[in-house]
Amino acid sequence: MTQSLTRKGNKAVSAETESAFNIHPMDQFVVKPLFGGELAWYSVTNVTLWMGISVVAVIALLVIGTRGRAVVPSRSQSIAEIIYGFVHKMVEDIAGKEGLRYFPYIMTLFMFIVLANLLGLLPKSFTTTSHIAVTATMALAVFVFVTLLGFVKNGTKFLSLFWISSAPLPLRPILALIEIISYFVRPISHSIRLAGNMMAGHAVIKVFAGFAGAMGFGAVFPIVGIMAVYGLEMLVTVIQAYVFTILTCVYLNDALHPAH
Amino acid sequence: MADVSMGPDLIQMGAYIGAGLACTGMGGAAIGVGHVVGNYLSGALRNPSAAAGQTATMFIGIAFSEALGIFSFLVALLLMFAV
Q: Is the ipTM of this complex over 0.95?
């Protein structure tokens, strides 16, 4: 869907702005095969490349960075230790002690998303997390995992998540309906939040860059704007990765302790 | 699409207008997020020692109120590219 989105967006933009500006803010999200040829399910694209780079970056930071195991940590070791402690505390605070069994999965999610987001901020790079296909895969994996875990751990008691026993009895069926809807909407909002934030932020930077190209000496103002938006984007990338992970913890907590 | 004789251009115009209108829903999400953070901040300034423990709750609240803005964005996307 995202691919057709960018294609159509390009056409509309280029038709309107050919004369004055030369802004193609959605161009950066087009999926292209790296070695030419038709786009098929097996072709190696720029998405593959940048996902691979983020995985390599995670390994470089967490495995190679902590190889020294010094008592006084080096810079990369202390970054890795801070991130580890941060995510560990988050899982423990929200999902409880039992949630720590699933800490490796949540840590993997956080590291991959935060590095994919940050690498996407490099000029000429590709933001893999700006595609709904990518984020929906992660969100659906979380959704299926959490639902299965809830039924495996609690059996049919997991359904008490939808039957709120603290509410008055006539209200409970209505609340159950609302709870069920909000449960199944989770993967949608979970995935589109990340993809939408990444896509919008990067498109804004591109639009400002287009202004800078069209303004000559006045380009100072859009360039200052780009710097400000870029700083904001650095913040947003980390916060969105944090929000994705913290919601995973909340869903995990629901599966482990379903009683309201 | 009810009446094909209206022409695809008119239908597309309607879809684009609808997409633009759907985006006003995001303003509501902005108000909601501002409300959550503002109340968090006013609570945190009254009792700064309790603030650190509630940051995660604040982010969960932001995420939930932002989700409703995401639905309006989703409606806009569907109108632009799926209808």
A: no
